[in-house]
Write a structure and sequence with these properties.
single chain, mainly beta, twelve-stranded antiparallel barrel, 1 helix, 14 strands, globular
Length: 228
């Protein structure tokens, strides 16, 4: 309960700062899109073992010049009784120089009608040019407390509009008897225009024998994303 209250106080404090910031010093961005399958950290976010399970995704983020940000993101899928995942984030980001940025904050995940799967994570992200290094620590007792996730992503420009993304992550489970897993992904991203991007991504994870529903199988995922 104390942890939940602390998080609520942090959200309220940052919301107050954001709401009082002059419009000229703030920026609101939004996105909306769809994928042929929602896969997160190498695992399918659906209960059917098929390659085609379309999901709708979208979100928004509000940034201020001091560096505070708040946002929300969602994706449809199948999470026991829930049909949607909602992520709310709050944090602080800072440019170290023209090529390097750091950000840290808290992400809270909600699955409506499936509250026992709700969770929270603290995160730290270091970005250098097209390279991202990410660290996440689970906070929810009985769900992901003390779990650790390490991720690296690199975007290599192939042309003015075409980019190759390569990424991998390692997830450590604090629960005894669970073996950590490595996930991987590589894909092509093509900018149709200044606001729309299509993607084709190959993704999966190791230790497929540890699950019996195929969620870690390799998948080829088609996506379309629009930014506003």
């Amino acid at each position: 309960m104390r942890s939940a209250q602390t998080t609520l106080y942090l959200f309220s404090f940052l919301l107050l700062l954001l709401s009082s910031a002059p419009p000229a010093f703030a920026q609101l961005a939004a996105e909306f899109g769809a994928v042929s399958l929602y896969k997160d950290r190498g695992e399918d976010q659906d209960e059917k073992d098929t390659d085609l399970r379309p999901a709708i995704q979208g979100g928004w983020r509000y940034d201020t010049t001091p560096g505070f940000f708040i946002g929300n993101w969602f994706s449809t899928g199948k999470f026991s009784r829930a049909n949607v995942q909602i992520d709310s984030i709050v944090g602080f980001g800072k440019d170290i120089n023209k090529d390097t940025e750091i950000s840290l904050g808290y992400n809270h995940t909600v699955h409506p009608r499936q509250g026992d799967e709700n969770s929270g994570e603290l995160f730290f992200i270091l970005s250098y040019k097209n390279l991202n290094l990410e660290l996440y620590r689970g906070m929810k007792a009985g769900v992901n407390r003390n779990n650790m996730y390490y991720n690296v992503d690199y975007l290599y420009p192939l042309s003015e509009r075409l980019g190759l993304n390569i990424g991998a992550g390692y997830e450590y489970y604090s629960e005894k008897g669970l073996t950590g897993k490595i996930d991987y992904r590589t894909g092509l991203f093509y900018e149709l225009n200044d606001s729309s991007t299509v993607s084709l991504v190959f993704a999966g994870a190791n230790h497929k024998h540890a699950v019996d529903d195929g969620i870690r199988n390799n998948r080829l995922i088609l996506g379309l994303n629009m930014e506003f």
